[in-house]
UniProtKB/TrEMBL annotation:
<dbReference type="Pfam" id="PF09932">
    <property type="entry name" value="DUF2164"/>
</dbReference>
<protein>
    <submittedName>
        <fullName>DUF2164 domain-containing protein</fullName>
    </submittedName>
</protein>
<dbReference type="InterPro" id="IPR018680">
    <property type="entry name" value="DUF2164"/>
</dbReference>
């Protein structure tokens, strides 16, 4: 799997959210540099777990839809004489 990358705009929004979280929940101010390092850490170390979970969830939905489709095909079958 290749590294998770964000556009500059996405990175800025995420860094802002990290800084806000630290200020609101932990009563700590961190700079943009520290927040960016934290984002890079999470993307590198935790990102694959989240990515894999997303793939698993997508596969579950796909499988459910395929079962629905198979059922619809059965309904279209003509009775044999």
């Amino acid at each position: 799997m290749k590294d998770i990358e964000f556009s500059q705009e996405q990175k800025e929004r995420i860094i802002s959210k990290i800084k806000t979280y630290f200020a609101d929940e932990l009563q700590q101010d961190i700079g943009g540099f520290e927040a960016e390092f934290l984002l890079d850490f999470f993307a590198r170390e935790i990102g694959p777990y989240i990515y894999n979970r997303g793939l698993f969830d997508a596969q579950q939905v796909f499988n459910e839809k395929m079962e629905d489709l198979a059922y619809l095909f059965q309904e279209l079958e003509k009775p044999e004489a």
